[in-house]
């Protein structure tokens, strides 16, 4: 499968879902969207689709199309969609022409804010509030990307075939973020929060350790040896998941 196809799935299903948490974590973004009441559909011809629903100051992201979105954006190719996420493309509006101003101004401001937190620099990361939001969004992006890479990236698909069934919990002490991956015969499911009985657990000592590992600023073996990262349970599940995680930067640099 082409790089463009893989990136399109990652953009719609691993990156776009972060808007849910952006509104919960960032007061500025939340203030912009507090009165929004609309739905926004993204669909690639013959490819992936996802939608966002804004209501009561919250956002819900879901895979697939919805019956009657307020705004429907269509993309001729996977590359066409990726260009939008790169800040270079213009979608084809199939519905919601009266809301083009919202897309060009309000929604673009929100996605720019998302990119602000997903593309850090050393100065921004020195701010504890920014560090927390960046780590939260980066962790979620990484785990949701595992699901998509295992389905569409040939190397990741091979790795995923050797992952035992069960749930891998990933959490940052003392108070999150937390997310998990469920491996089953039906495939992989990524979800936010804490599950009841994981088969394996990866625990980061604190937000700084988590961020350093997620941004490749800390050697994973050293972190485990020093006790900054604790691995428990079914270790082959963790090892193979990490191999897939290593492939995320190839698509989402």
Please tell me about this protein's structure.
With 253 residues, the protein is of the alpha+beta class. The protein has two domains: 3-118, SCP2 sterol-binding domain (Nonspecific Lipid-transfer Protein, Chain A), CATH 3.30.1050.10; 122-251, SCP2 sterol-binding domain (Nonspecific Lipid-transfer Protein, Chain A, 2-Layer Sandwich), CATH 3.30.1050. It contains twelve helices and ten strands. The longest helix is centred in the middle third of the chain and has 25 residues, at 128-152. The chain is globular, with a radius of gyration of 18 Å. It starts with a helix and ends with a helix. The mean pLDDT is 94.
At CATH level 2, the architecture of the largest domain is 2-Layer Sandwich
The total domain count is 2
Radius of gyration: 18 Å
Kindly report the CATH topology of the largest domain: Nonspecific Lipid-transfer Protein, Chain A
Low-confidence stretches: none
| CATH homologous superfamily grouping of the largest domain | SCP2 sterol-binding domain
- Provide the succession of SSEs: HHHEEEEHEHHHHEEEEHHEHH
The global form is globular
Number of strands: 10
Helical segment count: 12
Widest sheet, order of strands: 3-2-1-4-5
| Relative strand content | 15-25%
What would CATH call the class of the largest domain?
Alpha Beta
Average per-residue pLDDT, rounded, comes to: 94
> Structural class per helix/strand content?
alpha+beta
């Amino acid at each position: 499968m082409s790089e463009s196809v893989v990136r399109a799935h990652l953009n719609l299903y691993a990156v776009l879902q972060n808007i849910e948490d952006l509104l919960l974590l960032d007061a500025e973004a939340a203030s912009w969207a507090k009165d929004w009441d609309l739905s926004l559909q993204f669909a690639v011809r013959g490819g992936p689709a996802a939608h966002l629903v804004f209501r009561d100051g919250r956002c819900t992201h879901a895979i697939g199309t919805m019956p009657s979105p307020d705004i429907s954006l269509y993309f001729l190719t996977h590359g066409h969609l990726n260009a939008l996420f790169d800040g270079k493309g213009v979608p084809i509006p199939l519905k919601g022409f009266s809301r083009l101003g919202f897309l060009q101004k309000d929604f673009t401001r929100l996605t720019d804010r998302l990119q602000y937190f997903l593309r850090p620099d050393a100065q921004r990361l020195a701010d504890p509030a920014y560090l927390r939001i960046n780590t939260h969004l980066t962790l979620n992006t990484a785990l949701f990307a595992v699901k998509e890479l295992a389905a569409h990236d040939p190397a990741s698909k091979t790795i995923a075939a050797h992952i035992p069934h069960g749930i891998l919990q990933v959490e940052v002490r003392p108070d999150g973020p937390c997310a998990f991956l469920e491996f089953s015969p039906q495939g992989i499911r990524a979800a936010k929060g804490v599950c009841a009985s994981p088969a394996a657990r990866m625990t980061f000592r604190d937000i700084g350790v988590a961020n350093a590992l997620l941004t490749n600023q800390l050697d994973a073996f050293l972190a485990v040896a020093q006790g900054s990262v604790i691995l428990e349970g079914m270790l082959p599940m963790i090892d193979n998941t990490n191999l897939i995680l290593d492939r995320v930067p190839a698509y989402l640099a």
